[in-house]
Amino acid sequence: MRDMKKLLVLMVGSMFMVSCDQLFKGTQRTDEENQRDSLQVLLDQKDDELNEMMEVFNEIQSGFDEINEAEGRINLLNESDEGNDIATNIQENMEFIENTMAENKRKIEELQNKLKSSTLNTTKLQETLNKLNTQLQEKTKEIDILKQQVSERDTKIQELGESVEKLTAENTQVKAEKEATSRIAQNQDTQLNTAWYVFGTNKELKSHKIIVDGDVLKTQDFDADYFTKIDIRKTTVIPLNSKSAKLLTTHPQGSYSLLKDSKGEYTLRITNATDFWSVSKYLVIKVK
Fold this sequence. Notes:
alpha+beta; 3-stranded antiparallel beta sheet
């Protein structure tokens, strides 16, 4: 733009000399001072016109410079994967570019209209304006490419987001299935290691239908709540608080022992839990 300014100044000087020559060759002025004033007015008009055009030229070039800076910012943001405001920043810069491009186009059209009615030699000015138009067209193509790049980035981000959502859903499902499997396995393990025992007198056992007609647990309507639930891995000793004890359910010999304490009361000690509970998970002991 500095070279452009020099060019326009030289053009105005040339036109001023031509104008002076035409004035001197024209109608003879009787007053030298009036002649000088007329020349000054003409010079001032051309200078004002040139300054006004130069101001618009500078504004257009400044607009292109700002567009270049915004393009640079967008390119950097496109290459970045950090931060949550990248898309917003890109959008703001794109809006700025589009608005500045529209303003530059308007100003170029404004200059074109001024040149049509200008008293200046417009040949060089028109060449400069043509260059600005070319620059505007080239910049428009650049912006179109940039828009495509931004659009592709947005598409990739959207696809990535959808993939993340899909993976999250799959992971959630896998986790839920894993937890369900774990609960099932835990429940199965608990069931496998759960047993029930009860001890009581013959009368007590009959009253709870545990013994019916001399048989043990032969009916389905016995009082299950009368039994104590245990984990066979943890419970291996059962104090019976009685000096008489007899197992009524079947449990392999050698897998347990009945021992008396200092008071002569029995305690059941399970020495091999796997064998002891292999026949039945119910233990019934009759005491007195």
